[in-house]
Design a protein that fits this description.
Radius of gyration: 23 Å
Domain 7,8-dihydro-6-hydroxymethylpterin-pyrophosphokinase: 99-110
Structural class: alpha/beta
Shape: elongated
Family: Belongs to the thiamine-phosphate synthase family.
Helix content: 25-40%
CATH architecture of the largest domain: Alpha-Beta Barrel
Distance between the termini: 38 Å
Oligomer: single chain
Binding site for 2-[(2R,5Z)-2-carboxy-4-methylthiazol-5(2H)-ylidene]ethyl phosphate: 313-315, 344, 364-365
Binding site for Mg(2+): 249, 268
Bound molecules: the ligand Cc1ncc(COP(=O)(O)OP(=O)(O)O)c(N)n1, 4-methyl-5-hydroxyethylthiazole phosphate, magnesium ion
CATH superfamily of the largest domain: Aldolase class I
CATH topology of the largest domain: TIM Barrel
Number of strands: 18
Keywords: ATP-binding, Folate biosynthesis, Kinase, Magnesium, Metal-binding, Nucleotide-binding, Thiamine biosynthesis, Transferase
Strand content: 15-25%
Length: 388
């Protein structure tokens, strides 16, 4: 890379970014920082280590830190990357008061490819990284064989973990990466009634082969035990196709099968409670039928909104008048999180729905009502991606 001109001539560079926080809801702040990192132009978060809790070093009269390390690929120059990280820190409320003092979030370039940078503002490899368990332990999770200053990351991590106070947190932040990369464009919501006895797994697998990007298991009249078993089976299937699985309504089932998230509506458990119990790393979808509900959803932790019904539907009885494309557009314009339309969407009206500006279509009968769900999904996929 030609760093003088800031021009990329060599393709993306693999970098490691250290993240730490100890003010407020540190886990949520780290999740938000990772999301913003992944939204940077010319940068992709490839993988994130588990979270660790570590004792403060230097100034010890402060909270324990939550730490992790992200592996990213980027065509940003080291300087551009540093500026972008500082911008995220500032946007998330970091105020620089004291060296090694408490912080809302701290983002450090640990390694930038194989480069060594010795500038007053930027030193890479990070000068103290091989002395810190909270850096080396998550870094060794991502790349145990990595050699820094002639020493293997895994060996350094083991030694430092014995000397310094560091605890593994339960939540796996690989989920955050999955959530950040969630594709809402063709979202299948299941309903076994529509299958009229055909096998759910076969139908969902066919839909996945046809291009479905997200699946919601929606079981309205099933015992908890059966719901759980079906969810486990669907989780295996969606994992095989690397497509996230969300559970309709039931927080207990979503937790029990470690689903990628949940979809709840106006009559389900309160959004804030669901977010709190599921944690920041999981996807929470929220049903809305007007702008007020949409704004509420965005402010209270929803990752995306299911807006509908867009058209009349036989699949769910609802007293709500269809929103139409204009109603859908007004909801999309009122928020900045992804919005999918739902209700009566099929291959004939999908291009109209797309023109409202939403991020995807959510469908039941247009896929599961077909004897060939793979073809039906393919047609919807093509229609969604068709240029006007
Ligand atoms: C993507 C999506 N959008 C909306 C809904 C409807 O949710 P809700 O209003 O809670 O109704 P039920 O689906 O629970 O009957 C949804 N499921 N998915
Ligand atoms: C669950 C739900 N929520 C609003 S409309 C709807 C059903 C959508 O089904 P279909 O795609 O068959 O119209
Ligand atoms: Mg519901």
């Amino acid at each position: 890379m030609n760093t003088l001109l800031g021009v990329d001539t060599m393709g993306p560079v693999r970098c490691y970014i250290g993240l730490g926080a100890n003010i407020g809801d540190s886990r949520a702040t780290i999740a938000e920082a990772l999301k913003r990192l992944n939204e940077l132009p010319n940068l992709t978060v490839d993988t994130v280590a588990p979270l660790y809790r570590s004792a403060p070093i230097g100034y010890t009269e402060q909270n324990y830190f939550i730490n992790t390390v992200a592996e990213v690929s980027t065509t940003l120059t080291p300087r551009q990357l540093l500026t972008a990280l500082q911008q995220i820190e500032n946007d998330l409320g970091r105020v620089r008061v004291m060296r090694w003092g408490p912080r809302t979030v701290d983002l450090d370039i640990l390694l930038y490819g194989e480069q060594t940078i010795l500038e007053p503002e930027l030193q890479v490899p990070h000068p103290r990284m091989t002395q810190r368990a909270f850096v080396m332990v998550p870094l060794a999770d991502l790349n145990p064989g990595l050699v820094i200053d002639g020493q293997k990351a895994q060996l350094l991590a083991r030694r430092l973990a014995e000397e310094q106070e560091i605890y593994a947190e339960q939540r796996r932040y690989k989920d955050v990466v999955k959530k950040m990369n969630c594709n809402y464009s063709l979202y299948l919501v299941t309903d076994r009634a529509i299958l009229e006895g055909r096998d759910l797994y076969h139908a969902v697998e066919a839909a996945l082969q046809g291009g479905v990007t997200l699946v919601q298991l929606r079981e309205k009249h099933t015992s908890s035990r059966d719901f759980y078993q079906i969810a486990l089976g669907l989780k295996d299937l969606t994992c095989k196709y690397q497509v996230p699985l969300l559970i309709n309504d039931r927080l207990d089932i979503a937790l029990a099968v470690d689903a990628d998230g949940i979809h709840i509506g106006q009559e389900d458990l309160p959004l804030q409670v669901v977010r709190e119990m599921l944690g920041p790393q999981k996807i929470v979808g929220y049903s809305v039928a007007n702008i007020e509900e949409a704004v509420y959803g965005e402010r209270n932790g929803a990752d995306y909104l299911g807006a509908g019904p867009v058209y009349a539907t036989q699949t769910k009885s609802t007293p709500i008048e269809p929103l139409g494309v204009e109603g859908l557009r007004s909801i999309k314009e009122a928020v900045s999180i992804p919005v999918v339309g739902i209700g009566g969407i099929n291959v004939r009206n999908v291009s109209q729905v797309r023109r409202s500006g939403v991020d995807g279509i959510s469908v039941v009968s247009a896929i599961l009502g077909s004897f060939n769900p793979a073809n039906a999904s393919r047609e919807l996929y093509t229609a969604w991606h068709k240029k006007d």
